Amino acid sequence: MGTPPQRQNLPPWVKAPGDLKNPEVLQVQTGLLEAMFGGSRIPYIEQVSKVMLEVRTLESSDLTEVLVYGPDLSKFRTKWMLQSMAERQRLRQERGILRLEEAMNSLELGPRMK
């Protein structure tokens, strides 16, 4: 990826320009990303993982792109962690929808009062 990050304030653990080359990129459904982060956890994840995250909303899509900058091992580990968190959140939402459908079906199948 040839475009440099748009962020001006680099965390002290990110070494420019070496760590800003070739970010790891993952695309996550915007709804999942909001449920995962809510915006406030990004600085914490950056500090603990020793990476810099850049979030870009993709136009005409329900996807958000997350770019992970930093040393290679930290980038790969953080990308894997974020993918795992997104999958877990997706499964939790899916289970919730299935439970809701089951509850709605049980209400429809119950005896009707006149």
Structure description:
It contains three helices and three strands, in the order E-H-H-E-E-H. It starts with 23 loop residues before the first strand and ends in a 5-residue tail after the last helix. 15% of the residues are buried. Strands 1-3-2 form a three-stranded antiparallel beta sheet. With 114 residues, the chain is an alpha+beta fold. A hairpin with a 5-residue loop joins strand 2 and strand 3 (63-69).
Helix/sheet category: alpha+beta
Q: What is the 3D shape?
A: elongated
Number of strands: 3
Strand order of the largest sheet: 1-3-2
Terminal CA distance: 66 Å
Mean pLDDT, nearest integer?
82
Query: How many H/I helices?
Result: 3
Largest sheet: 3 strands, antiparallel
Point out poorly predicted stretches: none
Task: Please state roughly what percent of the residues sit in beta strands, choosing from under 5%, 5-15%, 15-25%, 25-35%, 35-45% or over 45%.
Answer: 15-25%
Helix amount: 40-55%
Radius of gyration: 19 Å
**H/E element order:** EHHEEH
Protein name: Developmental pluripotency-associated 5 protein isoform X2
GO biological process, one term: regulation of gene expression
GO cellular component, one term: cytoplasm
Pfam families: MOEP19 (PF16005)
Q: What's this, in brief?
A:
Pfam families: MOEP19. The chain is of the alpha+beta class and 114 residues long. It is built from 3 helices and 3 strands.
